[in-house]
Amino acid sequence: MTARLTILASGSAGNSALVECDGVRWLIDLGLEPKELDARLASVDADWSQIRGVLMTHRHSDHWKPKSLSRCWTSRVPVYCHRDHAPAFRLGCPDFRDLEQARLFRPFVGERSIAISENWKCRPLRVRHDGGATFGFRFESPQSAFAYAADLGCWDRGLLERLADVEVLALEFNHDPELLRQSQRPPWLVRRILGDEGHLSNEQACELVGEVLKESTTNQLRQLVLLHISRECNSGELAAETARATLAQFGSAAEVFAAEQHEPSPWFVIGESLPDNGDRSRTPLVQAMLF
């Protein structure tokens, strides 16, 4: 009942991730143009013929591209998203109506789980963001779980409970507030990013991680993956340093990886058997590096 996750791209220039559960592959978001998305898939030994479904987080343009959404129609790949996403998709993608007519548009039903494979299910998690209906995802089998949340401006207890007891947590670490205020960005954009429906700062994300660790019944977290890191108002090094300090504060041995915009991450493995002595820190967290 193993699963794997690789972040194909993460940032304001485009977002996409690939999930593999029991050998079945799904995409999260289509924020890259088809040629680039094909290249990222090929770099992790994947292609569209293997994709069994696409999960959409929200309708902001860095999370979907019309031509990549059209690829779902030509490849007959179902798209799972909220009903509120459909008007934007119809307006921007000429093939979306064909996708609907072919019943390849599969709206979320509340937070009801979606069957990903024989053993794995995906539960959409509603989060606050100014992209309209916006979601993260919790993937779980009877033995393991991991989660992905890329765009959110704040969090509540309901969300942290849904992120508890995961082996891998991929979470937004968007900005450093001071760097954001010192940037050349217009005041309205700074206010938007700092708002409750904007993006998580390093500190906000660390606070959420700390609460997730406290909420978890076991010390399962093995990998923390940092998403949507701002190129102007943050850095992978700064976000990772902040994250490691928080993990150390809570006695967590989880490793930290900062996802990048221009190249895929390694594969993060979920559900591997642990050593009998329970020493999780020695269990391999990722496959061999791709680059």
Could you outline the blueprint of secondary structure elements for this entry?
Layout: E1 3-9, E2 16-21, E3 24-28, H1 34-43, E4 51-55, H2 66-74, E5 79-81, H3 86-92, H4 96-101, E6 105-107, E7 114-115, E8 121-127, E9 134-140, E10 145-149, H5 157-163, E11 168-172, H6 177-182, H7 187-194, H8 202-215, E12 223-227, H9 236-249, E13 255-258, E14 268-270
Helix pairs in contact: 8-9
Distance between the termini: 27 Å
Provide the structure class. Answer: alpha/beta
According to DSSP, the number of beta strands is: 14
Tally of individual helices: 9
Q: Mean pLDDT across all residues, rounded?
A: 92
From the 3D structure, determine the CATH topology: Metallo-beta-lactamase, Chain A
Low-confidence stretches: 274-291
Rg to the nearest angstrom?
18 Å
Helix content: 25-40%
Q: What CATH architecture label applies?
A: 4-Layer Sandwich
Largest sheet composition: 7 strands, mixed
